[in-house]
Here is the input.
Amino acid sequence: MTLDLPDGSFTNWPGGVCPISDTELGAFQRHVLLTDGGVYDNHGLEPLVKRFSTLFVSDGGAPFERAADLHTDWISQLRRVLDVTDNQVRALRRRDLIDRLSDGNRAGDEAKIVADQSYARMGAYWGIDTDPIKLNPQNALACNPDTVSALAHLGTRLSDLGEQTSKQVINWGYAVCDRSIRSNYKGLPSQPTPAWPYEDAKPE
Here is the structure.
């Protein structure tokens, strides 16, 4: 998105300290090109990790697809390179987050994490392609791994999935959230089996 703005539309760098000269700054303030923040941080986690000691992270991003049949034209190759690069950055951020959560949940003391300004964080992470077999707390909602894998690989698009599929996706999101929080986040009392949001669309 391009914004062409008159001089004085916004103020200088916070605190008055700017990494570029006043002459260059004027050009940056008059002609502004914006893009989706996901280009820098697709998960949007960095500002949260810096500010909060407990994080619950739901990742609905499409899983990285491995395919034997890849096209070799320049445009297809460029898209594949960008996809691989994006996947690597996401994976690094996920690993960093999960390491922090593992350390924090082992400590089990949010006040100490805050007092120590620790690397650790408390909370839980789950993704749309999380394997339900690996997260199986007591009283978990039953999920068929093949069914939820198919739901995780639905195309990411702004179109109607149909009522039944939409209900299944919502149910899976609810179930994997419950499984991850109760498996990973320490400090919750024992919970009864939760109810499905949509009883007629269980991913079993």
Summary: The chain has three domains: 2-33, 42-127, 131-204.
